[in-house]
Design goal:
By secondary structure, the protein is mostly helical. The protein is 73% helix and 0% strand.
Length: 71
């Protein structure tokens, strides 16, 4: 049980890192901050990636807590 839980946590972490890097790639030079920051809404794929990132982050935290309680 612990092995499969640890494997699920690792896979979730790798997918979460990949999704975050996909979002940063689309941000351009705004990665390190920009004086020309403007407000804009997320649309299409960007909105899906944003929501998927939140879901994966929650899943990663949940799996980590469960893993901690079982060990």
């Amino acid at each position: 049980m612990e092995t499969s839980l640890n494997l699920a946590t690792i896979i979730t972490g790798i997918v979460l890192i990949t999704v975050i890097l996909m979002q940063v790639r689309g941000a351009g030079a705004a990665l390190f901050g920009s004086a020309e920051s403007t407000f804009r809404t997320r649309r299409g794929v960007e909105a899906i990636l944003f929501r998927f990132t939140i879901l994966l982050g929650g899943l990663f935290v949940l799996l980590s807590i469960i893993s901690l309680l079982l060990s």
